[in-house]
Amino acid sequence: MTRHQDRILGVLCGFDRMLFRGTLRTISYAQGANAFLRTKGILLKDFAAFAHSCTLDIAAHAERTALEAGRPYLYLSSSSERKEDRARAIAEQDGIEQGLVCVLYCVEPCMGFDVYKNRATEHLELVSRQRKCRFFYFYYMDREFGLLHVRLQSWFPFEVQVCLNGHSYLARQMDREGIAYEQRRNCFSSIDNLPRAQELFDRLERREWAKTLDVFVRRVNPLPGTRLRGVFGYYWSLRQCEFATDILFKDRTALADVYPALWQHALAHLSSPDVMRFLGKKLTRAFSGEAVTDMDRRPEGVRVKHSIDGNSIKMYDKEETVLRIETTINNPRWFRVLRRISRQGRPALAWLPMRKGVSDTQRRADVSRAANARYLDALAVVGEETPSHRILDSVSKPVTKDGHTYRALRPVSPDEAALFEAILHGEHLLHGFTNSRIHPILFPTLPQADPDRRRRSARLSRKLRLLRAHGLIRKVPRTHGYRITPKGHQIMTTALLFRHSDVALLRPNKAG
After folding, report:
1. CATH of 388-505, one of 1.25.40, 3.30.1380, 1.10.10, 2.60.40
2. How many CB atoms lie within 10 A of CB 229?
3. Is 243 helix (H, G, I), strand (E, B) or coil?
4. Residue ranges in 154-251 assigned as alpha helix (H)
5. pLDDT given at position 39
6. At what angle do helices 252-269 and 361-379 cross, to 10 degrees?
7. CB 3.0–4.6 Å: which of 31, 177, 354, 465 could bond 332 by disulfide?
8. Contact 493, 381 (CB under 8 A)
9. pLDDT tens for each residue of 135-149
């Protein structure tokens, strides 16, 4: 924001796409489903007939819901058809501003229950397996959330999902308050009152989602009050959520001038291990996941995506005027949340793995917002119009600090470039660094018990004091750790970019 303030209107942060999954946990596993069938007096040999009758009830309810609302009830022969596009086209064609838009249904793969005979025991068993069944998509133009859908599985155990969009929600809220804005598809290119819009957007993080989602599911599933009477209600989890930080540029030219340098910098300097650190995860030898960075050229621009173990950060331009950084969390157990627990009968607080349930929605937002901010911090050096020599000259002469004189830095030399690269590792942007963490990066092939390790460590400490004297790093009080200063980010990144650039690609400044 500081670097490009003359190009930027403001920043907007909040949930984009939110995909909730509802599970009837008491019947979602074989043992619980067996217990339910016993309480209802249903034999395993009659399970298929019972499940099929439930499917017929759901189908009849879906058709009746569409008929009573006077809306289309359509079968899709291909499950790969983009259902939201179909529903959106119907809503625009019929001018639907509120209420049911349509009910679509198709056959899709699912996890469901079936009965098989165990040859070893010669008994019937209820097993969970991959199968196919009908899914019903209820599309609503909701007065609060805009276009959303509720997807209901018609076979036992009747999972449900609700998918909505945070930017559609914000548009509805701003309409109510009379805030003028310009919306282009799934982003806002301008908002008259950004601070108030952000306050409205933040409400999604604190919402009691279970109550809201229960209202939706009661519209589409008739079974809990009839054939599934006695089964506990749906347990709601966030199957997928996207948290976006949108930088609103003044016009297309303002973003076009800086975006190519941003995505090139992201590809060249932000490796997947770096982004792993942005997401709060340390890279260890025990890590066995796959880290992938990819670039996708689209007609409207370039998207850079870093993904690790189901979680990702991506950067792309929206509608040519919005720079979006987006964190997607599909694997929440990567992260920690502070929760109240009981230890030896006493209440205590502990950092535990984040849950999939909606109770940790606020924590998801906090983690995602911080990840986006760290990613933007790493891009903050891009677009500097100051000539490189003016940046590097500030450390190219001796300095005096606390009565000691320190030599000038040689920022493009091999030794100091290697130290810069080690310090700029993504893990250090998040957690800071120490001498002991830098040492194995600089000397990866040497054993820990090397007799010269103490001497190298002392030499490294002197180099870190040199960087402190020049203001590139700062000491964390009462620790052995250091953090990179804004000046350090600027100088070290500029030096590395200059060192690794092809001479043929270097662009002279206006004076040259």
Report:
1. 1.10.10
2. 9
3. strand
4. 166-177, 194-206, 209-220
5. 92
6. 90
7. 354
8. yes
9. 999 999 999 999 999
